[in-house]
Amino acid sequence: MPRKTNDLIWCLPLFESDYNMIKNKKKVIVLGANPAWQKTLFFHNLNAGKVNRAYHEENYPSGKGVNFCRALRYSKLAETLLLQFAGGNNGKLLCDGLDAAGFQHQTVFTGSETRNCVTCLDDSGNMTELIGVSHKILPDEANAMLDKLRAVLPCSGILAITGSLPDGSDPQLYGKAAKLAMEHRVPILVDALIGLPEVLSQNGTVILKVNREEFFKITGESEIFQAHRKAEKSYPGKVFAVTNGGENATLSYDNVLFEYILPPVKVVNPLGSGDTASAVMSALCAERKPFQEAFRQALAAASANCTTAKAGEYDPDCANDLAQQMQITQHNL
């Protein structure tokens, strides 16, 4: 049965004259359509095919949208409102955990169980992820989500579309969400592969933030400069931010490419680092910081997240130090 949560009225529709006044209040709307109840197990040594006994575990709400919101809380850069689907016992654990932590969320309750995810980490920094089954979002559930989004967009500085959709769901949900954002002149950051042509074809500011392997898959290229050239040709006017773990990251827009050399860090848990980068970049872009500077700080926050145990947690002072150490070069495409 649906449960009562902090499914708050985030804001009321405003007149156009009010929009410019409120859009810089840095509220970030996060469409996290595929959350999870997360269990992270820590091992001294993890041996496949053997009995492995953990020495520590952590259980908490997760998924890209949740990790995103957690990272922005640590950054103190912006307020967030998470829009999500949740159902079953895992959905109850998820919502209870969000409520206990004080995260503002609006939830569409589903007839199916929210997935769970298990992450296994060993002392060498190796990570193994076991991702549970996700279930199709039904058409009426998707429409309910779009209604919630429509109501809160007038109070948003940016819309972040994060992660996959549950298996079998209609990929048009992301395209419809992007269209609503552009109708309200709200910029978009998308960290997802589903429905990308519809999202990137919208008129207005769209930032694609993916990792290098995903970017190569999107562009069909295997060399990073050529991949950026193809992306810019296919979707002119858009921004392409590409992470690469601890290796060089890249960003391009208006036929200029910025390459980032990241300082080394001691990795404890890389889970959530991409979400941390998306979160920080979204908040800074909502403040209209230059894209290349927003990505520099986003990469530094992601690196700082790697040094902590929980996805989306990081020390802003550590991130600032890493940002100062980062080297950036500029190239014409």
Topology:
Elements: H1 16-22, E1 28-32, E2 36-43, E3 56-62, H2 64-75, E4 80-86, H3 88-101, E5 105-109, E6 116-122, E7 127-131, H4 139-152, E8 158-162, H5 172-183, E9 188-191, H6 196-200, E10 206-211, H7 212-219, H8 224-234, E11 239-243, E12 249-253, E13 256-261, H9 273-286, H10 291-306, H11 316-325, E14 327-332
Parallel strand pairs: 1-4, 1-8, 2-6, 4-5, 8-9, 9-10, 10-11
Antiparallel strand pairs: 2-3, 6-7, 11-12, 12-13, 13-14
Helix pairs in contact: 2-9, 4-5, 7-8, 9-10, 10-11
Short structural summary:
With 333 residues, this protein is α/β, with parallel strands linked by helices. It has helices at 16-22, 64-75, 88-101, 139-152, 172-183, 196-200, 212-219, 224-234, 273-286, 291-306, 316-325; strands at residues 28-32, 36-43, 56-62, 80-86, 105-109, 116-122, 127-131, 158-162, 188-191, 206-211, 239-243, 249-253, 256-261, 327-332.
Give a written overview of the molecule:
Helix 2 (64-75) crosses helix 9. This protein has helices spanning 16-22, 64-75, 88-101, 139-152, 172-183, 196-200, 212-219, 224-234, 273-286, 291-306, 316-325; strands spanning 28-32, 36-43, 56-62, 80-86, 105-109, 116-122, 127-131, 158-162, 188-191, 206-211, 239-243, 249-253, 256-261, 327-332. The protein is an alpha/beta fold and 333 residues long. The termini are far apart. The relative contact order is 0.15. It contains eleven helices and 14 strands. Mean pLDDT is 90; it is low at 1-25. The radius of gyration is 19 Å and the shape is globular. Strand 4 (80-86), helix 3 and strand 5 form a beta-alpha-beta unit. A ten-stranded mixed β-sheet has the order 5-4-1-8-9-10-11-12-13-14, sandwiched between helices. A four-stranded mixed β-sheet has the order 3-2-6-7. 37% of the residues lie in helices and 24% in strands.
